Amino acid sequence: MRIVLAVLLFTTPALAEAPGERRTAPEASDVALFVVAAGAVWLTRRALRRRALPKD
Predict the structure, then answer these.
(1) Cα(42)–Cα(54) distance, integer angstroms
(2) What is the pTM of this model?
(3) Would you say residue 4 has pLDDT above 80?
(4) 27 HSE (CA, 13 A, CB side)
(5) Which residues have CB under 8 Å from 17's CB, separation 6+?
(6) Which helix (H) or strand (E) holds 52?
(7) pLDDT at 1 over 90
């Protein structure tokens, strides 16, 4: 786990966009992040609803 965190820590700045470039559309990573976040919210809400249901 420490190796993965170290790799992410050192490679993330290298993958960053150059400061002078203009963005015309969302990057694929932006879309992927949104999809993952929406899925996490959906799963959490579903789990909390199931937990709140009365048990037989």
Answers:
(1) 21
(2) 0.55
(3) no
(4) 9
(5) 23
(6) helix 28-52
(7) no
With a CB cutoff of 8 Å and minimum separation 6, the contacts of 23 are: 17
Distance CA 11, CA 39 (A): 26
Token readout for 27 is 């990057």
Length of the chain (residues):
56
Alpha carbons 33 and 40: distance in angstroms, whole number: 11
Q: Give residue-wise pLDDT tens across range 5-46.
A: 777 666 666 566 666 677 788 888 889 999 999 999 999 999
User: Two tokens at 2?
Assistant: 């420490």
Sign of the CA dihedral with 47 first, then 48, 51, and 54 last? negative
Q: Which amino acid is at 56?
A: D
